[in-house]
Task: inverse folding
């Protein structure tokens, strides 16, 4: 009986905590997102006068919004441990970031682990499924200049044309540095069977922890944002780039990020919202490739991407067997780094969001009273 009561008490506490977390996040969204939009409306004259300053301010507020999402997981004990290459030294250089995709929680994990990477978050462009456009954060991403892509053969060719037009129009004009995409084109659980059948049919590696990547978006990004060399690779020779006034070098790196969850149990957005899972450490492995090593021709790039995802398969298999990623070549032991967020900084951002929400509510109420 005592054990039953104890279990019931824990269940009640989990439910109560989930309700409180959901209530806080609902209010957090209601004050932060409209405030972001209203501040940018107020700054529209600045956008006409000096676009670079406008997008600099927008990027700072965008980073703060992503920090709020990160804080939801941080408070619940959801943290990130990083492995492999240290990407912070190249945070000011342009890069294409390819990530394996297991669940909706992958985006939240990226929002958290990139917070301490200099200006990356505020100068980052996301490629995400078009469904995300209709979520609470969709309006923010639309304003920021992220690209929403439709999946499926019926839309594929058109979407790649739209992607190139989007990059030409927004990437350089808004001073973007990193572009993040999920080349698998969907969640692991949804694509695994189809990917394995395709691999069997074409004598490709059988993958369990990842799926075979799709070429389209990566190919467009490399051809649009980098300079093609004679050897078919992408290079950083500024004389061959469509540079802007500040002589941008174009893409300099491809960053291969591998997300691993303990016991291969991905965290989804519901977990981040309700916090019903015990404190969990998500592991992220980084590997950097200079852009000159990356082929741009379709066939060679396809092989290169397949190699990267075979490596991801090996990395994840090792992690699920041992609880850690393998050491880099030439080293005996892999070294991990605990990613940290400053709780004081998070509190200040949340305070600013709620203060802004109250201010805008008061301003709009005053305007309404004056008009009516």
Result:
């Amino acid at each position: 009986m005592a054990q039953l009561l104890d279990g019931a008490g824990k269940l009640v506490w989990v439910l109560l905590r989930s309700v409180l977390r959901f209530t806080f996040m609902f209010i957090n969204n209601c004050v932060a997102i409209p405030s972001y939009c209203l501040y940018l409306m107020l700054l529209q004259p600045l956008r006409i006068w000096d676009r670079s300053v406008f997008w600099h301010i927008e990027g700072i507020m965008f980073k703060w919004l992503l920090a709020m999402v990160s804080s939801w997981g941080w408070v619940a004990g959801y943290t990130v441990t990083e492995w492999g290459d240290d990407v912070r030294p190249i945070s000011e250089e342009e890069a294409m970031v390819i990530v394996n995709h297991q669940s909706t929680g992958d985006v939240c994990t990226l929002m958290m682990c990139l917070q301490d990477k200099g200006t990356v978050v505020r100068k980052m462009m996301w490629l995400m499924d078009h469904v995300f456009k209709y979520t609470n954060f969709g309006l923010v991403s639309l304003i920021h200049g992220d690209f929403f892509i439709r999946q499926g053969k019926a839309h594929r060719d058109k979407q790649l044309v739209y992607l190139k037009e989007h990059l030409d129009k927004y990437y350089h004009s808004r001073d973007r540095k990193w572009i993040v995409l999920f080349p698998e084109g969907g969640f692991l659980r949804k694509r695994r069977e189809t990917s394995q059948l395709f691999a069997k049919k074409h004598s490709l590696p059988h993958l369990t922890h990842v799926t075979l990547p799709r070429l389209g978006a990566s190919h467009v990004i490399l051809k649009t944002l980098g300079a093609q060399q004679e050897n078919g690779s992408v290079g950083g020779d500024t004389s061959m780039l469509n540079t802007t006034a500040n002589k941008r070098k174009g893409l300099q790196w491809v960053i291969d990020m591998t997300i691993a969850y303990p016991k291969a149990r991905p965290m989804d957005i519901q977990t981040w919202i309700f916090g019903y899972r015990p404190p969990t450490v998500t592991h992220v492995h980084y590997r950097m490739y200079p852009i000159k090593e990356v082929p741009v021709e379709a066939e060679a790039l396809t092989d290169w991407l397949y190699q990267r995802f075979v490596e991801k398969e090996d990395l994840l298999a090792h992690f699920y067997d041992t609880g850690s990623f393998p050491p880099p070549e030439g080293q005996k032991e892999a070294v991990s780094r605990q990613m940290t967020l400053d709780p004081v900084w998070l509190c200040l951002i949340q305070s600013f969001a709620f203060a802004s929400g109250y201010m805008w509510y008061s301003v709009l109420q005053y305007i309404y009273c004056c008009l009516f």
Notes: The first helix runs from residue 2 to 42.
